Amino acid sequence: MRISDISRMAWDQVKRRKVVTALCMAGISIGCAAIIVALSLGDSAQSYVTKEVNRNFKMDEITVTPNGGIPSQGGESAASGSGAPDPGRLTRQKLEIIQGLKHVTAAAPFQQLGYIQMYTIDNKIADVQVIGTDLNLLTKYDKTFKQGGPSDLPGMAVLNYGATIGLIDAETRQNLYDQLGTDPYNTKIMEQYNSLSLLPSEMYRQQIQLQSQDYTSQTGGTKTSSALRVNGILGNPPGTSDERASYEKTVYVSLETAERLTEELNLNTGTSGQAGVYNSVIVKVDSVDNIVQVEQLIQKLTLSTSTNLFQQEQLKQTFDMIKMAALGAGVFILIIASISIIVAMTMSTHQRRRQIGIMKVLGANMGQIRNMFITEAALLGMLGGMLGILFSYLIVLGINRLIGTAGGGESGLVIYIPLMTIPIGLAFAIMTGVLSGIYPAISASRTDALTAIKRD
Hints:
- The protein is an alpha+beta fold.
- The chain is built from 13 helices and 15 strands.
- It has helices at 3-16, 18-57, 92-99, 170-182, 187-197, 242-245, 255-264, 291-299, 309-351, 353-361, 366-406, 421-445, 449-455, and strands at residues 61-66, 90-91, 104-109, 111-120, 124-132, 145-148, 156-159, 168-169, 207-213, 222-224, 228-234, 250-253, 277-278, 281-285, 303-306.
- 32% of the residues are buried.
């Protein structure tokens, strides 16, 4: 008996026994769909969370700082402030070496000048973080310009989107504070304050000044910087609300301008006012896979480094556990389905004793009869798996609609079915059918031909 004959006879039995076929397919399809949906949910959630973590924690970046634990040639630590050469300092020469490393797409100093009060020409104020950097490299760090662009001219500034939100003049701010102090439960005043806090201002090509407290003065006065011109406004990162952006107000200036501001405002910010010496450098790497390699090379320059790779490892471990648990649930359902197949195929063996006996009389051996039953079980598994794939797409479609409705159409999480999960689910379904058909196949092959014919 040829393989084509065995397959045709198995297919005829599957078509003839419609009720048994439908019940077996239903169980297998549910288990197959459970496995595919579980793996898809795990992959989609991991991809989404990894993307969000990368956007917020910059997984492909390395923060480089001076190594304060390296002693200087005079025997003193870097923190001592002595004039001896310090091998742990972050200098322009080391920055140039880092920029030339393989896999490094950008390396720029980000000099933290601290939080300073910003004034506009119409007397609006806000507390901003001032950072000195190479303005031409901002776009290398996933930043986009909404208006304008970088400039090499001194006295130019670039504002992030948050620095344009919630600018309130001092008089209006004080009046709102006074009213809230008098009537703290007045919802109208609170709503007015919240609306002003989220109101964006037109800052492009405007002039600003920075003002800081003069701690060297006994009178406790303030120091005001020379005017800065806003030459660019950065766009709001995707997925960031205006409320969240309003808490991140940053003003970027060139390194030359940062040195000038340090002198004008008498800022005590470590090395931020020294030419060619930096307190922080951010290195952009072409791939997360190359982070460790680049980090090790940078550490050889006696510098300290930090990354957020531990976040990725924690996420991988968490989602691996979720996938295994979901996969276990799907396998459990398939085991339940396999029991139904075993029962159905065993009953079929009993009902088809006469057919088996006639096949043996006509010359069919035990292996051919066994293969026919196993092929029949494999067909049930394959049909159930194909139905399960269809079910999984319908389930994922429903989940995406539910997520979109719950998120008001703005949810960034979209569940998708990776192509690799389809053969995995189908393989599990066919394997379940084959394993479930082994016992009935062996039982059928052992049927005595003459006894079966005489009884029926």
